[in-house]
Amino acid sequence: MSARFSSYGNFGTYFTNNSDPLSMSATRWGIVSAGKISHDFCVALSTLSFDEHKIVAVAARDRARAEEFAKKHKIPNAFGTYTELADFKDVDVVYIGALNPQHYEIGMLMLEHGKHVLCEKPLCLNLYQAKNLIQYAERKKLFLMEAVWSRFFPAYQYLRKQIQTGMLGEIQEVEVSFGFSLINVDRLSKNDLGGGVILDLGIYAIQVSQWAFQEPPVKIVANGEVNTEGVDIAVNAELHYTRNRISKISLSGKKQLDNKAIIKGTKGEITLINFWCPIKIIDIDGKEREWVLPNGSHPTNFMNSEGLRYEAEAVRQALINGKIENETVSHNDSLLFARIEDEIRQQVGVVYNDEKVN
């Protein structure tokens, strides 16, 4: 029998009793792109208090699409260009749900216009772009975070506590697999769309490895298969850490894998089920533990997307407290993710046509 917990209405460290005036008004969100993940993010926001989170604008490259999206999510302002959203004064923070190659340009645009930014993973195509974007946000004293939503789930917070308190002993190995049949999905298979499993799926495997080990790998060994566009469609990688510890990663865009992360320590192990958005784990005692998500205003496109609420609330709390980054997915975390992604792509032989690398 599994233990079940409500994971809504209780955000632990992400809710505060802050009396700052900012905490008394709603965080005003602008949405970049009217695609599937942006829809899911809006649904997730609908599970939070309207007094604290308001979606005030959406922008897409097709105004009609933006207007349709706005009507569905009851958003008062719809724009046909991203510049119009950047110019709009009534937005505090922008969620970027656009395709991978657009993250850097749009992120820079929003920061230039004084907007805080939550950008979907990967933050950028490579380390060079990520470093530039982060440095610009820091100079502007604006909040910027890569939307690695996984780490804000209660399951990840629980795992971190078990590691920190020594319940698992010393972490020795992480074994993680992530795969779906995605061959016919353009954003995964096209070079000019920044496709490939490393940036789309690998970021999740990399971040859970780092969540467990909390230090940069000392060696990376990777191999993979690329399609006719030169985009990776299957990758195996090993991240080697000090004291002979290791993370073993399997990624596939050709077939579904078991999509679990097993964190193995000297005293026991924890398994994250559907590890990129886990509401269930197998705990140290072998029993299942579950955190239940609320229902949003519409069905979502992707599994457990209501859980995007956790990172949204973390952004709000950062803004209330005047922070320009969040320690759960820090700027240094994102730079390390990008560095690892770059190294794996180099070993597999993936280069994007329009990639800026220096």
> And the CATH topology of the largest domain?
Dihydrodipicolinate Reductase, domain 2
Termini separation = 54 Å
What is the mean predicted local confidence, pLDDT? 94
Counted by DSSP, the helix tally is 10
Structural category: alpha/beta
User: Tell me, what is the CATH class of the largest domain?
Assistant: Alpha Beta
Q: H/E element string?
A: EEHEHEHEHEHEHEHHEEEEEEEHH
Radius of gyration: 20 Å
Shape: globular
Short description:
The protein is of the alpha/beta class and 358 residues long. The protein has helices spanning 36-45, 63-73, 82-87, 103-112, 127-140, 154-164, 186-189, 197-213, 308-320, 331-348; strands at 3-6, 27-32, 53-59, 77-79, 93-96, 116-120, 144-147, 171-179, 219-226, 232-241, 245-252, 260-265, 269-273, 280-282, 288-292. The chain has two domains: 13-149, Rossmann fold (3-Layer(aba) Sandwich); 151-348, Dihydrodipicolinate Reductase, domain 2.
